[in-house]
Amino acid sequence: MNRHVPPHVAAAEAREADGLGCTDVTPIKQRGQHEVFCGLTSIIWLHRKVQDAFFLIVGSRTCAHLMQSAAGVMIFAEPRFGTAIIDDRDLSGMADMNEELDKVVARLIARRPDIRMLVLVGSCPSEVIKLDLGRAAMKLNERFAPDLRVLSYSGSGIETTFTQGEDNFLQAVIGGTPRAAPDAPRQLLVAGCLADVIEDQFTRIFHGLGIENVHFLPARHAEGVPPIGPNTTVLMAQPYLTETAKMLEKKGARVLTAPFPLGEEGTTAWLRAAADAFDVPADRFAAITGAGRERARKAVSLYRDRLAGKRVFFFPDSQMEPSLARFLSREVDAEILEVGTPYLNKTHMAPDLALLPSSVRLAEGQDVDKQIDRVRADDPDLIICGMGLGNPFEAEGRTTKWSIEFAFTPIQGYEQAGDLAELFARPLGRRDLLQVEV
Fold first, then answer.
1. pLDDT tens digits for 158-194?
2. Three-class SS of residue 204?
3. Which residue of 4, 109, 182, 187 sits 20 to 30 Å from the alpha carbon of 25, by its own alpha carbon?
4. At the top level of CATH, which class does the domain 39-162 belong to?
5. 3 state SS of 218
């Protein structure tokens, strides 16, 4: 008997046979209502990373309340961020906003002389009133150089999701970075903010592989970014740095493409991309990564029974969704129903998409109402979504995980693979504990 195969099933089977996974799947394009944090939120991890920088948001009291609440830091603790508040006098024209900003910066520098990089961050209010922070940064640079570098970028929710704030910041950093000399020694640049402990772990691995000249972007200090040019090989640590990658390529750097370093499989493939680029012998690679791979597999196995077979739906939030879905599918045998992402850069995400089952539904952009309808139709075991959607879904009896936790939590690398699996397993465990038998 001839087997009848629907066209979409035949296409999926062909992709699997060719090893393409989801790489040629046409995503659902959505341009409806968004429910995501704005680009200011990335300051929460950026201000902790760059230890001699200060992020000055030029915005409203709402911006200030958002940052204080999201970061969980009281202002009297003097964190390395703050808000220059645009008030009624500024909006009415009774005060010159540029002069007021100059005064705020002068007071800040007098109070915090340890600052070596001042970052002016645009917000929705500052962009609506067309405040030119780029020009303000140039004037302040002339005033305070060389002791202080001043740059600016947009964290406005009008144009950015929260992870795009980091992309904009890194563009601003690279824009002022000198070009490497033609005879400069070869270097590896890891692009994307990583927790210090993970940076240290990767540094040890790279050194073990014989790659000694390694730098990270952003660096821990304002002057830590090296000159960039054809001598620079870039390994992307975060999937949401589309514009950063373009600017690095314009400076002559070579940007590698690899799965992102989540879980044992992703981390190994990511490290192998660097090893191949620097001609590291296969036996040396196996020797250096072997113990870490085994620890990661063992840590993840503790959560496989709880996650295996669970049906998971990803709302678009951070652009990390395809990599997270690949980890769940490949390393703990979860079933991925839909992977939504705010923007889908198929060049950067191709290695992760190739490892996803071809049955996965891809969605780019956001239309909340339509996605909620698909959730109710799919009835998944676990929903990865923004904070604003979590409680309503929980009220319906569904199990959710806040997607922003994957951006705030150190999850990259071998030693954190178990922590990543636990983030997914925790809400399922909570649900089991709260079930009441009648």
1. 766 778 899 999 999 999 899 999 899 999 999 999 9
2. helix
3. 4
4. alpha beta
5. coil
